Amino acid sequence: MTKLLKINHHHTIPFAGGLYRTTTRSNVASLALATSPFQFSSGYCSKTCIPSRLKLVSSTCYATLSAVVKPQESAFDGKEAALLVDELRTSFNTGRTRSYEWRISQLQNIAKMIDEQEKSITEALYQDLSKPELEAFLAELSNTKSSCMLAIKELKNWMAPETVKTSVTTFPSSAQIVSEPLGVVLVISAWNFPFLLSVEPVIGAISAGNAVVLKPSEIAPATSSLLAKLFSEYLDETTIRVVQGGVPETTALLDQKWDKIFFTGGARVGRIVMAAAAKKLTPVVLELGGKCPALVDSDVNLQVAARRIITGKWACNNGQACIGVDYVITTKDFAPKLIDALKTELKTFFGENPLKSKDVSRIVNSFHFKRLESMMKENGVANKIVHGGQTMEDKLKISPTILVDVPEESSMMQEEIFGPLLPVITVSKIEDGFQVIRSKPKPLAAYLFTDNKVLQNRFVENVSAGGMGINETVLHVTMKDLPFGGVGESGIGAYHGKFSYETFSHKKGVLYRSFDGDSDLRYPPYTPEKKRVLKALLSSDIFGAILAFFGFSKDS
Amino acid sequence: MEAMKETVDQSLREMRETFASGRTRSVKWRKAQLGAIIEMVKDNEEKMSDVLFQDLGKHSTEAFRDELGFVMRSATTALNCLDKWVVPRKSNLPLLFYPATGKVISEPYGTVLVLSSWNFPISLSLDPMIGAIAAGNTVLLKASELSPNASALLAKLIPSYLDTKAIKVIEGGPDVATILLQHQWDKIFFTGSPKIGKIIMAAAAEHLTPVTLELGGKCPTIIDHHSVSKDMKSVVKRISGGKWGSCSGQACISVDYVLVEQSFASTLIDMFKPVIRSFFGENPKESGCLAKIVTKKHFQRLSRLLNDPRVKASIVYGGSMDEEKLYVEPTILLDPPLDSEIMNEEIFGPILPIITLRDIQESIGFIKSKPKPLAIYAFTKDENLKTRILSETSSGSVTFNDLMIQYMCDALPFGGVGQSGMGRYHGKYSFECFSHEKAIMEGSLAMDLEARYPPWNNFKLNFIRLAFREAYFKLVLLMLGLTKGVRK
């Protein structure tokens, strides 16, 4: 039993109708009911920004859930999960997912699904997050589609065994590295980009020839149920499944034996996932988050820098993105100019009243709304607001908010913000910013704005982060040639493009030997002469080896 | 133990300080340390051979082949290739993002922990360290307490050859490992059993530390005697060398059992006998070429496996034991029961069960019914069988017509899958194993596309649609206002 389940024992959460598998494929409409506050709070359990320990957070969950009515039997339990995995393993063992044809056909179906269902996907994203259509298209649909197209185009190359050179020691032989599927894999995705973060890893899993179970986030219920419906319509049901639900379902899934678990979410649940995986020796990819800084030098093109920061903050799911800009560091002198530029550009982007703008997402649920509100109202923080700060609770909207020099010990500077609040930290020299970043856990992304090449190099060398954008925010994630993944607190493993394929493959070393050239020196009885030849061989000293070899044969 | 806690704290603090100073990142430092490892092994060849003999009764030739020589070669490879490995990899970005560039830089994780194992105490300690150092990390090694002389020698030699502020050794058993695992590391590299591997990974989860687990498993050897009948002499020699010639079968990539067709079994057994005799003489105990069983505990485990009456009845060669000398004779079993312990746990000793099948093609199903092994060996010239093995079974590696030498081939990644482990190393893979691949996109502030930013409108949607398709000509048309709708 995993720790996750233990939390669950304290409070069973009634996910009104949100808990069925694709196979039951029942009423999608009932999901609309699944927007109770309890569900939101449980969502906090599965995607949290607080890096603190299990106990603390679970008690938070417990507190927010105290109003929960009666415990209710979950529809999808360990037994069902075990049945599901068995079924998929049986299909996997038939070898059907290994063929190039199967993989291509599934990928093509995903591409087709994105094309044909663009409207319903965009609508689901709007329902879950009020995500503007174009943002949804840009960040989720196109991105997923282009990953899929890339996989279709490259699959043959990716699948080809790689021939490698062998050394003198193992001569005569030839060697290959063969990619093989891992087996049955689990993908647990997040609510903030509920389509992209579900389908992109699935594309990797399919490309590599695995059977896969997807568990979308229950915090984005419309997208979750849509994915369940679409997957069963478009994809091979014997090998690709969706399980919907929250903590109990995830727990039931984590108790099974998988060949890989791919998780996107918060560091706290990341730990639980990895601990559960350890019990079955399952490798994991953890795509977590962190406080991604943007360091802004004073030599930059103000307008462009401001726009790109805004893109990386508010135009990116309203700050609810693991690679979004969490805070800005700049020099004391430059801060007022930067803030003015940010204000001006915010106005062009979202108009005079951003709470009414259709071009910015809302906060996902009232739990997160309250969390952000209290972050803003904290002592010593509230008086640091220099822009925005307006809220609209019924619409779950918070206007783009900029704060200057909030105290380091405030929760805004200690936790991942995951919302539209942007603290600006000022330093006297721009280099001092390195120390600010390094004093915190390694972030998923770090951004730098400067034309100064020396500073760029120093930043790249001295700051550790999953990935980096120089004079850019967020965009590096769309580059299929770059691996995407965290380091330290921001995660383990990487994916995107070919890296997704590799993440879901095992690289099997294959060595082909012939029976020629079998020399006795490998075998006992051991003699000093044999050692001499071996020594020469291991140091790839062919001449020495030949000499020693002849010396050896003379002696015997 | 309080003192040990203090030592661990102190060591970690020092290593973190050293890492933060940036010293270990320089290629010069890495090369100097790698050079020092080679020097250390060269200078102390005799001492190292001695401790390997004391701990495991390894003959110095065997020790050189499997450990010292191997380590020196591994360090030399790293030294020679390091300049190539550290070069950032450039990547292509779509034209749309011009003038942006993308690259991937390998950066060291930081402070890493290497927990090694007793069966190859020198190479399984130094080889991962070579990777950790090549990647620019500070590293702490805990060698196994079950090979105490090797552990003590490493603890003595490493500080006198390598940078003591960055590379440390701590000696001790499970209690020390427990203290080490309570701390936060940036990577943990473990060689050992699946049981301990699970504990390591669970401890690592607490700090979100990535792990490489090099475990073992029951590695099968398939003999397709139809296609290799002419070469059976070599086959038997290679299997004997792989099973008994390398630490008495106490190796994670050792042959665990042989699969062969029923009709051929007795011929095979008859072929083994003279080869074993030619390797170890009439009295293998005194040959000096057969490593001993590492500890009394392991000896007792082997004798328990063998003393199961049903297993005992299956002995067709050998079977004698000497607890005093920790000696187990090279032993062959014919068809021990498949539900016996010996057929369900990793043997890790000089006992070789031969399992007979009606048709060698059944070997595929047999292997698939067991956890994924670290290696599969197959002696065959039948291309069809080769293909079936490659595509239908899963294992860390596959070697055709030989044993163990995949370990020596550093162009191949070495590592397990499923129960046999996760992560890989050797050669360049060692460097990658201890590096984080940091993706970097460098943009320019000079050019900017309006279509990237809100407020959103239809023009921007169309623009992005085309941009994602990299349909540049249509983009130009769109921008000139020459086209209205865009097909999805």
Automatic annotation (TrEMBL), chain B:
Catalytic residues identified in the record: 214, 252
Keywords: NAD, Oxidoreductase
Domain called Aldehyde dehydrogenase: residue spans: 3-439
Record's catalysed reaction(s): an aldehyde + NAD(+) + H2O = a carboxylate + NADH + 2 H(+)
UniProt keyword Ribonucleoprotein present: no
GO BP annotation list: aldehyde metabolic process; response to abscisic acid; response to water deprivation
Cellular component, GO, one term: cytoplasm
GO MF term list: aldehyde dehydrogenase (NAD+) activity
Family of this protein: Belongs to the aldehyde dehydrogenase family.
The protein's name in its UniProt record: Aldehyde dehydrogenase
